Amino acid sequence: MDHLRYLLLLAGCVAVTLPLELSGSRVYRRPARLARAVLPVAAVFAVWDVVAIAAGVWRYNPRYVTGVRLPLSLPLEEALFFLVVPVCAVLTFETVRRLSERSGLR
User: Fold this and answer.
1) Cα 75 to Cα 80: distance, rounded to the nearest angstrom
2) Which of 45, 73, 79, 86 could in theory staple to 38 by disulfide, Cβ–Cβ 3.0 to 4.6 A?
3) Residue 38: enclosing H or E segment and its boundaries?
4) CA 66 and chain centroid, separation
5) What is the spatial distance between Cα 64 and Cα 66, in angstroms, rounded to a whole number?
């Protein structure tokens, strides 16, 4: 079960923030806008990871990852991290922004 730990953590992040979308944040309902916010940053960090792995700067403990590797040896979980965590952050930000506007705090 340890090899699923990283994926389970990412699933937990999505599960915890999903109700924020249901509260009216509309982040998932605007996929093009979300992609423009997340994909450029994810690409930069993915390249950074690939370079660091190739240079031997860091590695991923095989005990905690599935072993599925994307091109250039990037672990699947790490690529998903670069997508899931920013999406959860945008969702949280949009919810706080929307609620603060609604309550007149902004």
Assistant:
1) 9
2) 86
3) helix 31-54
4) 17
5) 7
Q: Which of 34, 44, 39, 40 is nearest to 91 (CA)?
A: 34
Q: What average pLDDT does this structure show over 58-75?
A: 90
Q: For residue 77, what are its two tokens?
A: 């979980």
What's the pLDDT band for 71 if we cut at 50, 70, 90?
confident
Could you give the dihedral angle defined by the CA atoms of residues 53, 60, 88 and 38, in that order, rounded to the nearest 10 degrees? Answer: 10
- The H or E element spanning position 95 is helix 76-103
Q: What angle do CA 94, 82, 80 make, to 5 degrees?
A: 110
How many angstroms separate the CA atoms of 67 and 7, rounded? 12
Q: What pLDDT was estimated at residue 29?
A: 93
Residue with tokens 């991923």: 60
